[in-house]
Amino acid sequence: MPRSAPLLLGLCAALTLGGAPQGLRAQGTQAAAAPRSTLTVAEARAAANRFLEAAKTRDADLRYAQFSPELKAISSPAIVAERIRNEPVLRGWTLLSVRGGLSTTTVEATLDTAEGTRDLFMVLNGRGELEGYHFDLTDADTAKVARDFVVALSAGQFVTARSFLSLPKQEEFSAAALRTKWQELQRQTGAFVKVGRVLEVDRAEDTRLVLVSTEFREVTDALFVILNTNNEIVAVNFPQDPVRPRKFSPSSR
User: Fold this and answer.
1) Residue 182 backbone dihedrals phi, psi, to 5 degrees
2) Can you give the pTM of this predicted structure?
3) Would you say 209 and 201 are in contact if contact means Cβ atoms under 8 Å apart?
4) 58: phi > 0 → left, psi -120 to 50 → alpha, else beta; which?
5) What pLDDT is attached to residue 222?
6) Which pLDDT value is given to residue 21?
7) Where does the pLDDT of residue 244 fall: very low under 50, low under 70, confident under 90, or very high at 90 and above?
């Protein structure tokens, strides 16, 4: 297995990450005890309903308008429209818990989509704008989660890519930070070409390690994605010594 070094989210010295975040539902118990944000429960529910209504009508402009300034800076109505084309049709939803934090409020909802139910966590700022979100992917295929994350990065869907991170990691890494790291990587490897084979290579008590073979213009090597037991991404490592294509030389005959 090739040696790896952190380029996006941090260094994993071993296959097991000590103190990996627990599930989002467990986090909610702790968040509930924290001081409330500026949103009341009624305000948070109203803001969540507005965002989901825009999602249901598949209105890219309206969805973009409900982003926080930080998300707007890294996205656009065109990027949102591209994302919508890959989403299942939203039929309806039920709002569940509302959890206040120091500066944000998290609203949990169950979505009824054309592809089944999905649990969504929406993080709202004090103005009721979307700061981030996260789908519950606990029962999803781990390799697919890792692949979808890399595909979102490669497509410039940095808001979507960030949604695959655990909520604590989202607090550490903004969508803009993900864009910067992805651009820094491509300055070393050349432009992204495609994702190859994706394989879960190790499973520990509280982590999963997925190898994503990634081809760039000048480099082909493995990207390591580390997830917790809820399929939330908690770290990403890139190869330290990328495998560069060998140039033909007559002397090599």
Assistant:
1) -65, -40
2) 0.77
3) yes
4) left
5) 81
6) 36
7) low
Domains and CATH numbers, the chain: 24-189 (3.10.450.590)
**Listed residue (143, 163, 142, 141) closest to 152, CA to CA:** 163
Instruction: Print burial letters for 58-96: b (CB count within 10 Å at least 16), e (below 16).
Output: ebbebbbebbbebbbebbeeebbeebbeeeeebeebebe
Q: Taking a C-beta distance cutoff of 8 angstroms, is the pair 97, 76 a contact?
A: no
Cα separation, 212 vs 229, in Å, equals: 18
Rounded Cα distance between 63 and 50, Å, is: 9
Structure token digits, residue 217: 């213009």
d(C-alpha 214, C-alpha 216), whole Å:
7
Q: Which two tokens stand for residue 51?
A: 């965002």
150 token code pair: 């890399």
Distance in angstroms (rounded) separating the CA atoms of residues 155 and 80: 12
Distance CA 207, CA 228 (A): 4
CB atoms near residue 220 (< 10 Å): 18
**pLDDT tens digits for range 106-165:** 999 999 999 999 999 999 999 999 999 999 999 999 999 999 999 999 999 999 999 999
Could you give the strand order of the β-sheet that contains 130-135, starting from the edge strand earlier in sequence? 90-100, 105-113, 116-124, 130-135
Closest CA to 123 of 230, 207, 27: 27
State pLDDT tens for residues 186-195: 888 899 999 9
Give percent of the chain with pLDDT exceeding 90.
68
**What is the CB-side half-sphere exposure of residue 230 using CA atoms within 13 A?**
18
CA separation for the pair 31, 35 (Å, rounded):
8
